[in-house]
Amino acid sequence: CVQPLLAALGQIGQIDTVGVIADYLYARDLTLIKTAIQALTSIGTNEAVDALVVRLGSDRDIDLFILDAFAAIKTERALAQLVQALAAPEVHIRTCAKTHLTRLHALSIPVLVQNLDTPNTDALIHTLNVLGTTGSELAVRPIRNLLHNEPPDANVRFAAYEALGMLPLQRGAYALTAGLTDSDSMVRMAAAKSIERIFDSVLLAGLKNLTKPESKGSNLIVATLIDAHAETVFKAFVNDAAFWNMALNHLKNEALPETRNYFEYLLRQSGQSSLADQVLALANQETALQNLLIYAIDDSRMVLNLYKNALYQLGYEVQLFEFPENALEHIQQKKPDLIFTDLNMPGLTGIDLTTAVRHYFPKETLPIVMVTTQSEGQDSAKAHKAGVSAIIQKPFTAEKLHQTIKTFCPKL
Q1: Which has the higher per-residue pLDDT, 157 or 253?
Q2: SS (H, E, C) the chain
Q3: Are 177 and 187 in contact, with CB atoms under 8 Å apart?
Q4: How does pLDDT run across 281-307, given as a tens digit for each residue?
Q5: 45 touches 77 (CB < 8 A)
Q6: Are 18 and 51 in contact, with CB atoms under 8 Å apart?
Q7: In the predicted model, is pLDDT for residue 4 greater than 90?
Q8: Alpha-carbon span 147 to 157, nearest angstrom
Q9: Of 56, 71, 269, 324, most Cβ neighbours within 10 A?
Q10: How many CB atoms lie within 10 A of CB 3?
Q11: The pLDDT of residue 135 is above 90
Q12: Per-residue pLDDT for 154 more than 60?
């Protein structure tokens, strides 16, 4: 008889019943706990939200149910709790909070923007991830201001440029060019992708200034644009002799074969057959692959592209997976020599993936390396318990990947 009573109290919605209902959040019956959560959700006051906050942290399913309640209540206090959950040490809470905040973007943007001042680097990165997925121009200026202050963490800069690449940049797009000269390759790639998406006459003029005269810096910018498959930018510059020389040099010495093929096809489609022939002439200069198969799993296509470039230059065969569920199927069908996986992914997290893989392959036969921006000890402990072989931090470099591969693949 308690369950219908709790439901009725929720429907009545009297604030002075919050304390009575909250007592049942600690019942030994899960059904009563969920009914109490639903009742507090119906009341939806700040007092109800605060009672739910206190209950967080002891049970995964209950935590997720409470986050669902915050999303249903939709008040500023409730949304603030979802944003605060982005800093939670448990990956399942962060993932659930990001999902709700993305869905409620029209309401959550003001609270998310306020969170750009957080000193918690991990929470800041997750906040930027969500702001990018909202597609709202209201997020543009705060993110540009963040970049103007030059955050020292490369992961923050990467997340900021990646977010801008998903937002409608009407003015101030020139600010993106600063990312092309960043010291970190991941950040440069994110900036290049954003520039390609919104390329206009202002950016054209800015890039011309940055790529003349030819220098180490301008070569790096051109290489980044090529690796990002910045088709619109490439077409605008292809008749510029200095740009073409730098582009051809990168296509010859460092670019992936598929990148060379892409630009050869693009040139032929544009009627630039003589330039296409120059690219085709580079096709026979392939890197000899070592007898090693590596899987890289990350829900960011940009990060996967960085894996591809780095591991190809090192001479390894790599297969990329944007969806961990798909990766798990392939792992069972064809075991790789080593797996690099992200931690925070929708659906299966890196920890979930590792747990599943360990049902088939122990550590001794298949090393799994977690690559993440996270610094929380709790996630690290869970990852090791699930069976990861090592954890390395983003941003990664080709050298860091190479060192890790040599550590776990002694046959090299």
Answers
A1: 157
A2: CHHHHHHHHHHHCCHHHHHHHHHHHHCCCHHHHHHHHHHHHHHCCHHHHHHHHHHCCCCHHHHHHHHHHHHHHCCHHHHHHHHHHHHCCCHHHHHHHHHHHHHCHHHHHHHHHHHHHCCCHHHHHHHHHHHHHHCCHHHHHHHHHHHHCCCCCHHHHHHHHHHHCCCCCCCCHHHHHHHHHCCCHHHHHHHHHHHHHHCCHHHHHHHHHHCCCCCHHHHHHHHHHHHCCCHHHHHHHCCCHHHHHHHHHHHHHCCCHHHHHHHHHHHHHCCCHHHHHHHHCCCCCCCCCCCCEEEEECCCHHHHHHHHHHHHHCCCEEEEECCHHHHHHHHHHCCCCEEEECCCCCCCCHHHHHHHHCCCCCCCCCCEEEEECCCCHHHHHHHHHHCCCEEEECCCCHHHHHHHHHHHCCCC
A3: no
A4: 876 555 555 678 999 999 888 889 889
A5: no
A6: yes
A7: no
A8: 7
A9: 324
A10: 15
A11: no
A12: yes
Name the CA dihedral angle for 23, 25, 30, 31, rounded to a multiple of 10 degrees: 70
Report, as an integer, the average pLDDT of 96-112.
Answer: 92
- pLDDT over 70 at 59, yes or no: yes
pLDDT value, residue 132: 92
Report pLDDT digits (tens) over 186-195. Answer: 899 999 988 9
CB-based contacts of 58: which residues, under 8 Å, 6+ apart?
none
Residues in the chain: 412
How far apart are the C-alpha atoms of 334 and 69, rounded to whole Å? 42
What dihedral do alpha carbons 76, 344, 328, 388 form, nearest 10°?
-140
Structure tokens at 61: 């399913």
293-297/317-321 β-pairing: parallel
Whether 320 contacts 275, CB under 8 Å: no
The winner for highest mean pLDDT among 162-176, 196-210, 382-396 is 382-396
pLDDT for the residue 376 = 53
Show Cβ contacts of residue 56 under 8 Å, excluding neighbours closer than 6 positions. 63, 66, 93
